[in-house]
Each structure stands twice: as C-alpha cells, then as structure tokens.
Amino acid sequence: MDALLRLDRKLALGGITAIVAVSWLYLWTSAATMDHGTMAMDAMPRMQSPGALLLTFVMWTVMMAGMMLPSATPAILAYGSLVRKNGAHGRILPGPWTFAAGYLSMWTLFSVAATLLQAALEYAALLTPAMATASAGLGVLALIAAGIYQLTPLKHACLGKCRNPLQFFLTHWRLGPAGAFRMGLEHGAYCVGCCWVLMLLLFVTGVMNLLWVALIAAFVFVEKVFPGERLVTRVSSAALILAGLFLLTRM
Predict the structure, then answer these.
(1) pLDDT digits (tens, 9 = 90+) for 218-232
(2) DSSP one-letter code for 41
(3) Distance from first CA to last CA of the chain, Å, rounded?
(4) Closest by CA position to 121, among listed 55, 53, 36
C-alpha cells in the first residue's frame, strides 16, 4: 500500500512538473518573441480582432497553469492519496487528474475575465506595448487595493481552504467523476478568491514580465504551503501599500 502511494505521488508530481515546465517554456518563448519586436501592437488584443483575443486568452490560460499548479500540488496529492486508500477498500474513485482538471477549469474561467479586462484596457488606450498599465493612477490604485485585500476576511477564508486540503475534502466531498471535477472547481474557486488581486498586479508590472510572473507565483506558493501565513499576508500587505504610496509620490 505504501509503495503504491509513493508511486502515485511520483506520477502526480511528474505530471504536474511536466505541465508547469511546458507552460513556462511557452511563456518564455512568447516573451522572447516580444523582446525581438516580432509581436507588434497588432498582436495585442483588440475588440475587432478575435484572433488576438484568442491568443491572449491562451497566454493567460497557460500562465495560470504555470503559476497556480505548484501551489495546488498538496491538494492534488491529498486527493490522490484518498483515491488510493479508498481503492484498497474496494471503493473506486476518479483519478486525481479529474480533480486537477476541475481546478484548472476555474482558472481558465479567470483567464476569460483577464482577457476581456486586457482587451478593455487596450481599447481605452490604457496599456503600453509591454502590456502594462499606461496610467500611473491605475497602478497606484491596484497596488493599494491589493495590499488592503490581503487583510480582508474573504482573503483569509479563501486562503484557509487552500492551505488545508484535507479539511476541504471533509467538508466538500462528492462522489463520482462529476463530483471530483466539481471539487476541483470549488477548490479552484477558493484559490481564485485568494489570489485574483495578485494576478491583476501583472497589469502594473507588465503581463509578460516573466520576472514578476515568477515572483508572484513564488509568493503564492509560499503563502499557501509554508507556515506563518498570517505574517506573510501582513508583510505583503504593508509592502504593497507602501509600493503604491511610493508610486503615488512619483506621479
């Protein structure tokens, strides 16, 4: 039994690693293309260009997979362990990838919203060619709002669900493939509730600024997996608000 659990964990970790690696390779290739100037302003989303909107949606979807799957790994592994333990008692449960598919589907829905927001900002001439906000005021507002959100009860409640996958499964358990997929959706919804404001900060630094994409992904991982989450959220809140105030003084 223990050997099978270890094998399951290795397979799950290998699959997650492969998806994350491919996602980051795609982002790196896209960013390199932009740096060489082969993606001009026409490649940015425009309301009259469905192709550009689709390309931007793909970019956001891949980015969310690369950023969020690492922090969802404990939940995916926990579900995989439950599948294996129930299988030992003759109860067949859907595999962990059904749960993971539901989780990624929720972030895909977020990617739709992010794509439409990016299109709206571009339509209003509020984005630079680097896909960062052209308005310092919007940057200030985004940073301070993100800092305040870090301290809200909603943030704390969503983060608690993300940090305690076993407790989540105890209170949200559903049977069958549809149930596993729905649990993934619900767990993803809590993660979106926890992190959506942080993702919107990419419009401050530049959506394809991979350094900041990596830093935000690393912060999300630390916030969800490492101990001391209260201290992490408070320090990050203060840092974001101070960054917003500093930017305000530079206007």
Answers:
(1) 999 999 999 888 899
(2) G
(3) 62
(4) 53
Q: Are 110 and 64 in contact (CB under 8 A)?
A: yes
DSSP-derived 3-state class of residue 158: helix
Q: What is the CA radius of gyration of the chain?
A: 19
CB 111 within 8 A of CB 61: yes
Q: What dihedral do alpha carbons 143, 148, 153, 157 form, nearest 10°?
A: 30
pLDDT at 148 over 80: yes
Q: Which residue has the higher pLDDT, 89 or 97?
A: 97
Note the pLDDT tens digit of each residue in 159-208: 999 999 999 999 988 888 899 999 999 999 999 999 999 999 999 988 88
Q: Which tokens hold the place of 116? A: 């439409």
Which residues pair with residue 49 across a beta bridge? Answer: 46
CB contact set of 247 (below 8 Å; sequence gap of 6+): 136, 139, 140, 143
CA distance 176 to 184: 12
For the entire predicted model, the pTM comes to: 0.88
> What does the buried/exposed string (b/e) look like for 72-96 if buried means 16 or more CB atoms within 10 Å of the residue's CB?
bbbbbbbbbbbbbeeeeeeeebbbb
Cα angle, residue 195 at apex, residues 194 and 199 outer, rounded to 5°: 165
DSSP 152: S
Neighbour tally for 50: CB within 10 Å = 10
Number of helices (H) and strands (E), helices first, in the chain?
A: 10, 0
Q: 């704390």: which residue's tokens?
A: 156
